[in-house]
Amino acid sequence: MKYKTAIKSIKFTFYVLLVIFIFSVYIFFKHVQEKYISINSFDDCSNAGYEILPTYPEQCKIPGKIFVNKSQSASFDNFDKNSTSSQKLNSPRNTSYDIEGNSVILNDGAAVINQTENGIISNNIVQYVGNELRVDVNSDNLNDSAFILTSKGTGNETYYYLVVSLNKNNAFTGTNGAYLGDRIIPQSTEFINGEIVVKYLDRQPLVSKLAVPNLKVVRYFKISDDTLTEVVK
User: Fold this and answer.
1) Which of 102, 76, 101, 104 is nearest to 91 (CA)?
2) How far apart are CA 145 and CA 142, in angstroms?
3) How many CB atoms lie within 10 A of CB 132?
4) Rounded CA separation 18/182 (Å)
5) Which end of the chain is more exposed for a tag (fewer CB within 10 A), N or C?
6) d(CA 227, CA 105)
7) Kind plus residue range of the DSSP H or E element containing 34
8) Rounded distance, CA 162 to CA 71, Å?
9) What is the pLDDT of residues 127-180, one digit of tens each?
10) Whether 23 contacts 30, CB under 8 Å
11) Predicted local confidence at residue 184, as pLDDT
12) Overall pTM > 0.85
């Protein structure tokens, strides 16, 4: 009889502890959910202690959401829109870059290249895409700009390039473009241990360009003698 009573007491205690555990888990996840829902801006995300990506503008990342530091974005956009013509030429989106041997001069982040092949004139549109990184890439204590450009012609191809705009005492000079791929999906541009790290999705070799990119690619670049070069790892 005492044995059965002890068993019942143990079972009762177990069920009570189980209920307390389940209730505690419920309260914990409810608190996490409420905190997650309450994050609706870059400042909310930053104050909550979540990761801030080293991009320009800054981005704060939480599961399923990315918030952009609009104050940085606004300041850069206003610089381009409100500057005089001479000042605008000194901004990363208004300077010259070497793309496949062609000197491409961006105007507000875009340019049109006229090409003639077999007597046929075609236009290639080169355009600023984003994923901009504002850091000192060549150790001269001046913030440079690294970002991605696309070059699109009359076909389906859209070629992606990484370029860097070097800050020469607030007069920007564009580098050569490093080819990334055709119709890729850029993910992030970071600066780690003195190298520009570009992450994007591409396709496996021999897979149709119409397929959705799902191959994760990480490539590393650095500035050497004002030239953008790839670091093979």
Assistant:
1) 76
2) 10
3) 20
4) 55
5) N
6) 17
7) helix 2-38
8) 25
9) 998 888 888 999 888 889 999 999 987 678 889 999 999 988 778 889 999 999
10) no
11) 93
12) no
